[in-house]
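Re: the 318-residue chain
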Amino acid sequence: MNSGNVYAAVAAIFFLLMISCQAQLSSTFYDSTCPNALSTIRTSIRRAVSSERRMAASLIRLHFHDCFVQGCDASILLDDAPGITSEKTAGPNDNSARGYEVIDAAKSAVENICPGVVSCADILAVAARDASAAVGGPSWTVKLGRRDSTTATRSLAESNLPSFRDDLPTLISNFNGKGLNERDMVVLSGAHTIGQAQCRLFRDRIYSNGTDIDAGFASTRRRQCPRNGSDGNLSPLDLVTPNSFDNNYYKNLIQRKGLLASDQVLFSGGSTDSIVTQYSNNPRTFSSDFGAAMIKMGDIEPLTGQNGIIRRICSAVN
């Protein structure tokens, strides 16, 4: 091989290595370009959660709803615009997903110190971690380096996000399609240890007189959710410790006290019963597995390298 060919081969290898490195998310991604990014986001998220504790659940859910549609690319934050159909008005998000203004505030704070450096997608991922930690939940090392999408897809949000009506095989298939296994699905569902649900999402279950729901629990929940009307009435997903990030969610399922149908199917004689039992008995395992699953979820189809952009405002393309 002559020297020209050798040089070309070396250059090609170097280019491939560079592309490979760009595609890897890293916890140190902003260490040199914006060293105060994470502390700035944390301060902003703590402020929001301290003023409304429910916001912790909403921010975790926002990251989840982002990653399940087009990957973790902040597409959920985009408003309607020419060529963009916002995911905010998709069935699972409309009048339900919340916390957009919290992400906007965190983004604004970061833009003040490092303009055009930190992506909205990364802020969503960091916010979910900081929200969990702020209410006594697990913390984990967030991998960074995602870039933001220039598109959003309402139809994908309609089809890709799990439904409160889904049965166990449907949920397993949905999560498997995102590279998440049954254990990941069960542990991520444990985020329902905090937060609230609207009456319309659990009405059918509490009036079903089914064998999979504790009768006293159903009766108690009917007080906040009449058979007709009051669709938006809120009720804690976990009545026992509604503001604490703990493993009580799993204990509820074993007692047939899961609020949503899609919660209770995790303990209904199926393949996930043993995982629910394990987490109900071992809060430390739940905590460590939750962090690991959140890291894994954050790896779903990120835009890296030269793909995507860094949005200056999270709700609009630059």
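The radius of gyration is 21 Å.
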